[in-house]
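Thread: Newbie trying to understand structure tokens

Hi all, I'm a second-year student working on a class project, and my supervisor (Dr. K.) asked me to get a predicted structure for one chain before our next meeting. I've only ever worked with sequences, so writing a 3D structure as a token string is new to me. If someone could post the tokens and maybe explain what I'm looking at, I'd be very grateful. Here's the chain:
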Amino acid sequence: MKTIHAGSTARHLPPRRMLAIAASLALLSAAAPVEAKTPTPKVSNGGIEPVCPLGSFRCAPRPISYAMCRPNAMLEFYDPTLTKDSTLRPTAKTYGWADSVDGSSQTVYHMRGNVKLQRADQQIQSDAADYNDQNSDYDASGNVRYQESGQLLAATHMRGNQDASTGIADNVQYQMLLSHGNGVAKQGQMYDDQHTRYYTATYSTCDIGHHVWDFRAKNITINKDTGVGTARSAVMRFGNVPFMYLPYFSFPIDSRRKTGFLYPVMGNTSRAGFLVSAPYYLNLAPNYDATLDPRYYSDRGLMLGGEFRYMVAGSNGTLDVQYLPHDMGSDAGDGTVFNSKPGDDRYLVKFIDSTHLWKSWSLNTSINRASDASYFYDFGSNLYNTSIGTLTSSIYANGGGTWWSASIGGDDYQNVNPFIPNGYTPYSRLPRATLNLNLPLTRWLEFGMNNEAVAFSKSGEVEGKREDLYPYLEADFGNSAWFVRPRVAYRFTDYQLDADYQHYGYGSSVGEFGPLAPGQASPFTSANPSRSVPITSIDSGLIFDRNTSLFGTNYTQTLEPRLYYLYVPDRNQNNLPLFDTGPTSFDYWQLFSPNQYAGADRQMNANNLTAALTSRLLDSDGVERFSASFGQIRYFNQQLVQLPNSVNTVTPATNWAGSDYVAQLSMQFNDQWRLSAQYQWNPNLHQTDLGVLELQHRLANDGIINFSYRYRRFPDSTQLLLEQYSVSAVYPISARWRLVGAWTYSQLDKTTIEAMAGVEYDSCCVAFRIIDRNYVNLNYLGAPPPGAINNNSRNSAIMFEIEFKGLGSSSNQIEPLLRRDILGYQ
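---
Reply by user tm_fold:
Sure, no problem. This is what the structure looks like when written as tokens:
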């Protein structure tokens, strides 16, 4: 039914469907709240509130925000009491109000003065309107304002048919809801409640009347059913300056994915020249999509990149391919060991997949291959790829249950550091199988087993197979105030070396094998060497706590002394190869480890006692605000198991009485400051072996400053390994501008390892980043490069990325670099 009010008079009319174009905006802080498909982020002082705690390794991206947009004058006629459910229209009543109503014809109602027609989510207001009760035609004129669940519209004149949801509006101004899109048009035509076309129209997501950018088109079609708008014969303008003609252009009008161009990226690198990238997104289906990324490098040619993502029943994955035919670049000429040749085809393939097989079993695949070792050195255009030295490919079937886990598959590696030979690449492990058991026998007793069988292969070096069996029996006694955990284990490792094993020996550096020189004897005296060794330990500790206060805040303070005894008898392991084993970095947690080597090729001997002390401060919510730990290992026997450092020789056994003194500190009393530190003092050589200081400070809501200092010596040596200073920051100048930067300096090399600086701009409807990065070449990764090369060879890259908010997703080329170089970047 329809009810029309003139003063206090009301009369009922049959229900009618009204024209559909617009709803309201809840995107502006000055607007009335309106439901939306995506949550609106909290804003404070014009910026996004921090959602990333200090110390987080990775922060979530900042959502697109329209908080800096000006209040929208069109919202003055927005009625928040209207329902947002458009499906109620067919059965809803239509109400009308006006200062005066003339219904003398019994067919056409003439309404004058403050006219309002309302039905379900629809509402039209005007100075005057005529409504035909027989055929549902309407004609509204004078300051026409229309609202519905999708859009707001203002016009000088609107007429149409309510039943057919058709209409024509003149001199239109419109505002979309979900995409913040708005514009003006000479005329708008409504075909039904889902399709609208504007003629001689503009579109932008900027402030109404203050368009930083927009496009002007012959016609713009809005399809609410698909969530896509299309423009024909469009000219895109930036600051009223036309810069692009688009005969056909599509854009999203809500949060759904859509096919279309992503934001372009421009840049320049010293290895590939000027870069232009224009990614194109293909929304193929709800469960799979693709992105085509054609790139042009001025020094190398045209590259075609593509990414395909899929989610099907029991499987999901990504395929990423980059291909450049007939590289126009020249040889590096800077001391690289491996160079591509002019005219070579260059490519990169990345494939990741996870597929459910059966019950708890799944197949996990990660394939990464490049055409040559110089690929990332030459095409580090996305800035973060240049730090890659080895590509790992693996495929595993993984399964598990309550007390077991297992895997079978393999790993392969490719060297992509052109400054080092392939001998530094890890062994291929194919096939490789693991089985881990963790079976409770009683409430306090547990039986476990860690097993591995693997075949190792690498061209030009000794190869073979290895089985490693590691059963253990462990007990756990204690409560909240104390614990005692005795453990008894037995480790058996067996090898089957290939027939030519006697032709190889240890190379000049740890982990490298090679053919023997004339007159040199092989350390491998048997084709089937093995090692068996028992391992016993007992871990114990006490936990004291008390209530205390600091700076007016109540805390719970703990004092936690801990003793860890480890006994492992010595076994001569000099005849065992080193397939995947190396020393671990000594830190606080190594005080309680049964082995100082990562991998099964070496098991250290031990008759050690570790003593450590930890104290913590916990706030009323149980959050750790302060932690300090100190400890040392006391050796009762010499450390006899060592790694070889050259053919037929090993590092001499240590006769030290104790390990380094290890201390670590973590402190964060509020959400703005965080401090962590590590320190190791070598009492045998009377020197500092390790010093790390990290400080992090949150600036306002979206800024951060990081400082770190790192100092480390080679293990058991007076030789300095590194001494570096690092500073990184996101510094907000205003609500719109942020400076970003990172700097790493090597005191040992007296040079800047990496320097990155840039600026970010964010406004109501446009955002951009420009980044300049200068960095040393890849010879700082992995082992030192052989021979005399230019160690100071540097690369540089400049990247520019612009985002027109509401026109699609970002190509996201620069953000990975900022995440890597600036801890806490968001």
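A couple of things are worth pointing out once you decode it. Confidence is low (pLDDT under 50) at residues 7-50, 381-385, 780-792. The radius of gyration is 35 Å. Feel free to ask follow-ups in this thread.
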